[in-house]
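To whoever picks this up:

The parser on our side crashed when reading a file containing two proteins. I've narrowed it down to the boundary between the first structure block and the second sequence. Both blocks are reproduced below exactly, byte for byte. First block:
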Amino acid sequence: MKSTCLSALIASLLLTTAAIADDKIVKLGELDDQSSLYADSGGPGSVLAVNMAVEDSGLRDKGWTIDVISADHLNKPDVAVGIARQWFDVDKVDAIIGVQNSGTALAVAGVVKEKNGVLLVSGAASSDLTGKACTPNTIHWAYDTYALANGTGKAIVKQGGDTWFFITADYAFGHALQRDTTAVVEANGGKVIGAANVPVNTADFSSFLLQAQSSKAKVVGLANAGGDTTNSIKQAAEFWHRGGRPEARGFVGVHFKHPRPRTRYRARPHLHRNLLLGHERWHPRLLEAVLGSHEKSCRTHHGSGGRLCFDAGLSKNAGSDGGQSP
């Protein structure tokens, strides 16, 4: 269904750009992270997806000439802007597609508006793309931070996760997700205790996880994506096995449940049935981080007396409260 919708959107985009050019020659530029932390969820796969969508549109069979070129923006706004200008001024690109990384997408949006081109954003998520930075030339074909905050964030607060600590990717997307989720948390009676800004593509999250644990927040909000999400979840799992007391609870939250007074309860690390609810997509390395070294495992679900079982990245609770897939 998603492929069909994307093909229809590409066809519409092609018709629009061709109408502007008054011919049947269109050049598309797929601009993404091809080599770093977002390459697994975009990169070469996104280039292939654009070519498949062009084929599915059927326009080449009707005499259209449609070329697709690609480039790696290296997650640097200045590099992305330079490529965009080269594409419009020299390569005569009609539309730019993809643009993972909200910082690069926001920068490219300005160039596209200046050149009166078309920008189809399918990889960046900052709500600013349709907010303060909205332009008539930008189509935001993706989830955004407003949706994540009002879906996952609101649901977690309603379930009792009313104190938050954010581990935030230190660029446009991370700050937008923290901002939008904070607004939802506070509007529903919750409180944000603190936050740690983390450079993009960080290898070691241990100091940030210690800050999160020390905050005593019920929810640790992972305002990051791609390889950073993979690394932070994997290291959180390792940290928990060394004595942390976690209960994972979502894309924007890893829930810490502290023992009640005067009980012999000792929390053991396990994954909550709502793990990664709201994440943009699953990919193999993210599954490895979630499942650890076990492709299928079951762990005791404390409190319900049931079991949490994991198979191919989807969780199912065999206990009394009835599990749901992520």
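<<boundary where parser fails>>
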Amino acid sequence: MLLPAYMMTSAQVQQLESAARSGNASAEYMLGEAYATGMAGAQNAGLAIQWVSRAAQAGHVPAENKLGQYEQMGFGTAANASVAAQWYQRAANARYAPAEFNLGLLYETGLGVQQNWITAAQWIDAAAQQGLQPAVLERNYVTNTALRVKHAQEVAAQQQRGSGSCKPFYQMGAMGTCVPGPALMIESMRMDNARTAD
């Protein structure tokens, strides 16, 4: 176990605990983090999740995100990605960039939610617009994949309707369905090259 960079004195822990017991959500969150990291003495996952959960229930946005992380990792509780997604959603609705990114990653992977590249791209882009560096790095990949998925869904819907015309980069095949044309392969290679250049 790694030792925390800073250890709280017992007087500091008591002062923080007193504020937390009085219902101060920021103090609840800080105390939970102190127990999670071992800054309050020995690491205690049970106390960490107890205090962070109280802060999250009170609407403390960073605590909502942190509780989502605990739920996703199974820190102090059984791992539950669906519950994690709910906590990330609450914090993301408040425009908290780390939660927007975490929620986007869940939609990207389908962990705890139904996989949805378009929703993933929207949340990751929202976090990237606030300057969250991991989101900035992930944005191009997710957005390009979302565009490909959306295009494939549109083509499939068009084929089901039997419209007789194809979207760009596709051509009418022998069986009357849209099939990838040579231009799609060129566009796909261009998008892949753009992604690796980042």
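After patching the parser it read the second block fine. Residues 117 and 149 are 7 Å apart (CA to CA). The radius of gyration is 23 Å.
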